[in-house]
Amino acid sequence: MRRDNESIFSRKWVLRVVSLVLAIFLFVYVNGSKDGFLRQNTRNSSQANELMSNKTAKIEMPLNLVIDNEHYVVTGYPQNVKVNVTGPSALVTTTSNTQNFRVYVNLNNLGPGKHRVKIKTSGLNSELTANIKPQYITVNIQPRKTINMKVNIRLSDQKVADGYTMGDPRIDTQTVQVTGSREEVNRVNRVIAFVAVPNDSKSDIMRSVTLQAIDKNGQTLNVVINPKTTGVTIPIKKNADSNSNSSSSSSSSSSSSSSSSQSSDTKDSSSN
């Protein structure tokens, strides 16, 4: 048996076949590993290029005002502005998602009146650039003023269902504070609580209404009212005359019925 094995492996063609098979196996293994390595490198390189490539994102941001709010009121500015942020893709994506920067205008060194100011950013990564639209805005700075005013009730109609009467309206808040620019506050003529009254009302009306400041021409003014809402109650009562008329009708009906009955009894007696 041993001689047979030795004779087989001693033959040259057997060794050559075995060597060839091993060579093919090693070739396939090495090339497969190299292709996998190249594919991995290519993927990693692609991802790295994607992360490092530039990108632009449009972000809508609130506009902040830097000013002494206790003494001044600002009008004429937009609540939000659009910012185009450009830079490395990963940073732009993160900034777009977190919005971890600020858009503002500094008005601290400006006095009352109209001013054209530039919008700026703060807290933005140094590798990013921002293009703000609009770049400049015009604002109107006015001294702040606060006054106290009595609230007046205004009803859409004073007609209710037939047989019912509307009582005197009651309001939860008698006096409010009105704040705004001095120019606008000086125009305030009244603060009103407007209540819509249905024509067929038969029960008390209770509403929570938003207060409005109006000028002498009835135009609504741009001021802040505190509190801005109040409750209004309008009592609706049934007329006393309606009740007495109803009782009279009922009594008349009863009397008529009684008279008819007595008349019928008289006729029956007469017949007998």
Describe the structure.
The protein is α+β, with helices and mostly antiparallel strands. The strands form 4 sheets. Strands 2, 5, 8, 11, 12, 14 and 15 form a 7-stranded mixed beta sheet that branches. A 5-stranded mixed beta sheet has the order 6-4-1-3-7. A 3-stranded antiparallel beta sheet has the order 10-16-13, with no helix packed on it. The protein is 35% helix and 38% strand. It is elongated, with a radius of gyration of 45 Å. It has 5 helices and 17 strands.
Molecular shape: elongated
* Biggest sheet statistics: 7 strands, mixed
| Tally of strands | 17
* Model regions low in confidence, pLDDT < 50 over at least 5 residues: 246-272
Order of helices and strands: HHEEEHEEEEEEEEHEEEEEEH
Name the average pLDDT: 80
Content of β-strand: 35-45%
User: How many individual helices?
Assistant: 5
The whole-angstrom Rg is 45 Å
Short description:
35% of the residues lie in helices and 38% in strands.
Q: Which properties best describe this structure?
A:
elongated, 5 helices, 35% helix, seven-stranded mixed β-sheet, 272 residues, five-stranded mixed β-sheet, disordered C terminus, single chain, alpha+beta
SSE arrangement:
Elements: H1 2-9, H2 12-52, E1 54-66, E2 72-75, E3 80-88, H3 89-98, E4 102-106, E5 113-118, E6 120-122, E7 129-133, E8 136-155, E9 164-166, E10 170-171, E11 175-181, H4 182-185, E12 190-195, E13 205-210, E14 212-214, E15 224-226, E16 229-234, E17 236-238, H5 240-271
Parallel strand pairs: 1-4, 8-12
Antiparallel strand pairs: 1-3, 2-8, 3-7, 4-6, 5-8, 8-11, 9-17, 10-16, 11-15, 12-14, 13-16
